């Protein structure tokens, strides 16, 4: 099959493209290299079935051309990462909403299937743990730009489902929970690569807030596997699916585990949210997916153990730091 992947030079995108090329598919990537990089796809550029264009997902003529050329579009391009969202809210809203609209609109004429990457952030401050796809969502005030990311992604979901109902575009929505693994960058506030880099360099590991907030970390390879199985499942069309591990860990414990795996004696330093972000920053205490719907649809759920995931990230960061 021929896949069009927006954001293909990013973290999840580059793992997805690698998997597709390995299994014999053809891939066209569109990426503006804002948070992604050519390094992420350097191992693919000489492959005959791999093509890439540097450009923007909001460039409608270009997106239309590439959607038409492919059998399936996977839309991953987005403004990602809490720090980026707090610092550049206009860019976040415009990229996430207009990019998705451009992809969906391009798919109408030939009714091409589209997979939309959403996020566990859409559950907002909900405390109904574990999060089920059909549960209510509770977002914070519009005066707090942190919620712009969640809201833009929720709007993407509504838009996608509306395009399916009104215009017949087959869509699948993947709500990714914290997805981690090699090649994820710590530059935009991603917690695991940041901890790994700090531990390996002997710096203090900085835990925001009390460290009691917990998350579930899934391996990017599991996320890619789930996404591709959904694409092959006709019953998945029109569905919204949580994609993530349900192994929960507090951020403080995560810092300790990273330190152990890295063999580091870095101290752990607690940093108030006000110091890390702007005053009034809000975070969720827990974020746990209910994996039942995904499991029922494809017979699979992300389950690589956390320690193995941390080892993978630490090994990757160790070899990356040795190169710089
Ligand atoms: N990694 C996670 O934990 C996670 C969790 C939830 C949701 N997601 C979603 O998964 C998708 C991929 O995220 P990721 O973690 O790989 O992040 P990433 O930043 O590595 O990937 C995003 C890619 O999109 C590209 N991009 C951004 N704006 C673009 C534009 N206007 N036009 C073209 N390309 C553009 C970036 O350069 C980058 O390569 C995103 O939609 C994100 O919201 C990721």
In short:
The protein contains 12 helices and 13 strands. It is of the alpha/beta class.
Overview features:
single chain, 324 residues, alpha/beta, Rossmann fold, seven-stranded parallel β-sheet, two-stranded parallel ribbon, 12 helices, 42% helix, binds nicotinamide-adenine-dinucleotide
List the helices and strands and how they pair.
Blueprint: E1 2-6, H1 11-22, E2 26-31, H2 38-41, E3 50-54, H3 60-69, E4 72-75, H4 82-87, H5 89-108, E5 114-119, H6 147-167, E6 171-176, E7 179-180, H7 191-200, E8 205-208, E9 214-216, E10 218-219, H8 220-231, E11 240-243, E12 248-250, H9 251-262, E13 268-271, H10 273-276, H11 292-298, H12 306-323
Parallel strand pairs: 1-2, 1-4, 2-3, 4-5, 5-6, 6-11, 7-10, 8-13
Antiparallel strand pairs: 9-12
Bound molecules: nicotinamide-adenine-dinucleotide.
Description:
The protein contains 12 helices and 13 strands. The chain has 324 residues and is an alpha/beta fold. It has a domain of 226 residues: Rossmann fold (3-Layer(aba) Sandwich), CATH 3.40.50.720. The strands form 4 sheets. A 7-stranded parallel β-sheet has the order 3-2-1-4-5-6-11, sandwiched between helices. It has a two-stranded parallel sheet with strand order 7-10. Helix 7 runs parallel beside helix 9. The chain starts with a strand and ends with a helix.
């Amino acid at each position: 099959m021929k896949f069009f992947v927006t954001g293909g030079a990013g973290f999840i995108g580059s793992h997805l493209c690698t998997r597709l090329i390995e299994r014999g598919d053809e891939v066209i990537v569109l990426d503006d290299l804002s948070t992604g990089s050519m390094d992420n796809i350097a191992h693919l550029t000489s492959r005959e079935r791999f093509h890439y264009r540097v450009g923007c997902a909001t460039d409608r003529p270009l997106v239309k051309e590439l959607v038409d050329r492919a059998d399936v579009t996977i839309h991953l391009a987005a403004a990602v990462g809490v720090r980026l969202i707090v610092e550049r809210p206009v860019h976040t809203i415009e990229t996430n909403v207009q990019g998705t609209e451009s992809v969906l609109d391009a798919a109408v004429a030939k009714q091409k299937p589209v997979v939309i990457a959403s996020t566990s952030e859409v559950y907002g401050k909900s405390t109904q743990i574990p999060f089920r796809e059909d549960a209510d969502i509770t977002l914070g005030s519009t005066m707090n730009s942190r919620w712009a990311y969640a809201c833009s992604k929720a709007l993407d979901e509504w838009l996608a489902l509306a395009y399916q109902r009104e215009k017949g575009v087959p869509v699948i929505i993947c709500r990714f929970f914290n997805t981690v693994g090699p090649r994820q960058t710590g530059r935009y506030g991603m917690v695991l690569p940041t901890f790994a880099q700090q531990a390996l360099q002997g710096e203090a590991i900085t835990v925001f807030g009390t460290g009691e907030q917990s998350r579930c970390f899934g391996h990017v390879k599991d996320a890619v596997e789930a996404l591709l199985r959904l694409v092959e499942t006709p019953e998945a069309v029109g569905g919204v699916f949580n994609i993530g591990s349900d192994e929960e860990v507090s951020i403080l414990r995560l810092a300790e585990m990273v330190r152990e795996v890295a063999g580091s004696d870095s101290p752990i330093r607690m940093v108030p949210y006000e110091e890390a972000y702007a005053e009034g920053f809000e975070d969720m205490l827990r974020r746990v997916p209910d994996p039942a719907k995904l499991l029922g649809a494809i017979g699979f759920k992300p389950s690589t153990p956390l320690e193995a995931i941390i080892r993978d990230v630490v090994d990757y960061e160790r070899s990356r730091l040795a190169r710089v």
